[in-house]
Write a structure and sequence with these properties.
Elements: E1 13-14, H1 30-42, E2 47-48, H2 49-55, H3 65-70, H4 79-90, H5 95-108, E3 123-124, E4 127-128, E5 132-136, E6 139-142, H6 177-184, E7 191-194, H7 204-211, E8 224-229, H8 231-234, H9 245-257, E9 261-267, H10 277-288, E10 292-299, H11 307-320, E11 323-329, H12 336-339, H13 343-355, E12 365-371, E13 374-384, E14 387-397, E15 407-410
Parallel strand pairs: 6-7, 7-8, 8-9, 9-10, 10-11, 11-12
Antiparallel strand pairs: 1-2, 3-4, 5-6, 12-13, 13-14, 14-15
Helix pairs in contact: 1-4, 4-5, 7-9, 11-13
The structure holds pyridoxal-5'-phosphate.
């Protein structure tokens, strides 16, 4: 049953600076209060009044999934890093000393996994396009500068580096004229994925400046406009009661009227995010405006590493008219050690969840890794001539020819990422690690697909692309 508080809220953020003013704060265990101080220095922390009042069950701390999802946890830093910051703070160290330690720890946390800063950036007139990524032929990602924040931050966020105010780690565009110019020259691009951060923290009139020019015949090759967002879960008021909620829905209607498809790539991590009246209302209103909603999230320990959570999420989504889309593997960045789920276990949970839901919810694909060469899905575990193997394939690939070709990796119950896997049967390399042609749409000389270094089994294996 949806909770109906009937309350029209205005947004209020809680961060390390004002978290003590959140009423349940006083009751938090001391180690959580300390973790907010310590971990909150290194990794971004922000939650909000809706998340705190409607999604978190304060009688279930620290295990509540949405508490784990938005509040810093002691295990998110290694014991060494945690003690280092805790000691500096306890000793009243100078701000410069704390900042220096924080910066060192951050750079060790792999802030841009899968080569996000160097790879996939297209060029226009010999210039790299800031805030634009094109990894797959059909789809361009755009990171508008004003959308580099969220209504709350996920503790496991793989884009955490976007939020810490370090320009060296940020990846965003402050203007969209370059993007438009680029899109004009690229007839193969059918999809624009506006992402962040969260682009729906931007006011509608700003989004409109980006989207409206695209609705002209000049961009007839652009068929699908996607918004990647967590607002449907963290601030559904964005689509219901915010001052420009209706204006956003009108913009979606205009996209549809132009003959295009508009889809919300909705980041829902847990079924509780679809349990409130306002969350249901947001879905209803988006659907009435002609938006499709596709549901996706990574599987993360402490938050949603149970088959029941996924089965419930997907069936709720289908009941409301949203489409289960992807289950991802958490990326190799930030506090991965705390949140990671081994591939074998993720596959087991995915299969169990899938077996519990109607066929309408089995549109979901996963568990999938957004790795350097592409989106790799674990299709199963088999035994061939006495060797246990993962069966894998590409859902998306830097070279379209790689898609949907099954390949085998030696089974490893502890592997958590593609780079932990080795080819089965003693093969030296996976098929996509062979030398291959660069994709024609990649203009960047920085995009080296396969270099001539030998492919050695081991941690340092080079993935093509
Ligand atoms: C996931 C992803 C896309 C979109 O892939 P779809 O399978 O079309 O949803 C596009 N670009 C990048 C870099 C991605 O990781």
């Amino acid at each position: 049953m949806a909770k109906n508080t009937g309350k029209k809220r205005s947004y209020k953020a809680y961060t390390r600076e004002n978290i003590t003013s959140l009423p349940p704060y006083a009751q938090l265990p001391q180690e959580i209060k300390e973790a907010i101080e310590v971990v909150g220095r290194v990794l971004p922390f922000r939650t909000n009044n809706y998340v705190a009042e409607e999604l978190i069950d304060w009688t279930n701390i620290p295990d509540d999934p949405i508490f784990q999802l938005t509040f810093p946890q002691p295990g998110m830093l290694s014991p060494g890093d945690y003690q280092r910051i805790a000691r500096l703070l306890k000793n009243g160290a100078a701000k410069e000393a704390v900042d220096k330690a924080v910066a060192e720890i951050r750079y060790r946390l792999n802030p841009h996994p899968a080569g996000q800063l160097e790879l996939n950036v297209p060029e226009l007139d010999g210039q790299r396009l800031k805030g634009v990524q094109r990894k797959y032929r059909e789809t361009v990602l755009f990171f508008p500068r004003a959308g580099q924040t969220c209504h709350a931050y996920c503790t496991y966020c793989f884009r955490w580096a976007q939020f810490i105010g370090d320009d060296n780690l940020q990846f965003a565009a402050s203007r969209c004229d370059q993007l438009l110019k680029f899109l004009r020259t690229q007839p193969d691009i059918t999809d624009l994925l506006i992402t962040g951060g969260d682009p729906l923290v931007m006011r509608t009139k700003v989004i409109r400046r980006l989207v409206e020019p695209l609705l002209t015949p000049e961009f007839s090759h652009l068929q699908n406009i996607r918004f990647g967002t967590k607002a449907v879960a963290y601030w559904p008021q964005r689509f219901v009661s915010d001052p420009d909620a209706d204006d956003f829905l009108r913009l979606c209607e205009e996209i549809v009227k132009s003959g295009r498809h508009v889809t919300i790539m909705a980041h829902y991590s847990h079924p509780v995010e679809l349990s409130t009246a306002v969350a249901e209302e947001a879905v209803r209103r988006l659907r009435n405006a002609g938006c499709e909603i596709r549901v996706q999230a990574p599987i993360v320990r402490h938050v949603n590493d149970r088959a029941d959570s996924w089965a419930m999420l997907w069936s709720r989504a289908v009941r409301l008219g949203a489409i289960p889309y992807y289950m991802f593997i958490e990326r190799d960045t930030g506090p991965k050690g705390y949140f990671e789920v081994p591939l074998a276990r993720a596959y087991h949970i995915f299969r169990e969840a899938l077996s519990k839901v109607s066929g309408l919810a089995r549109t979901v694909r996963g568990p999938s890794m957004s790795a350097t060469p592409g989106k790799v899905v674990i299709d199963g575990v088999v035994e061939i001539k006495g060797e246990r193997c993962f069966v894998l394939s590409f859902l998306q690939a830097r070279l379209p020819d790689w898609v949907k070709r099954p390949f085998l990796a030696k089974y490893d119950p502890h592997a958590t990422w593609l780079t932990d896997l080795r080819p089965a049967f003693g093969e030296k390399a996976f098929f996509f690690q062979q030398k291959s042609e660069a994709a024609s749409w990649c203009h960047s000389r920085h995009d080296v697909y396969a270099d001539s270094r030998p492919l050695l089994p081991g941690k340092d294996i080079e993935y093509a692309g």
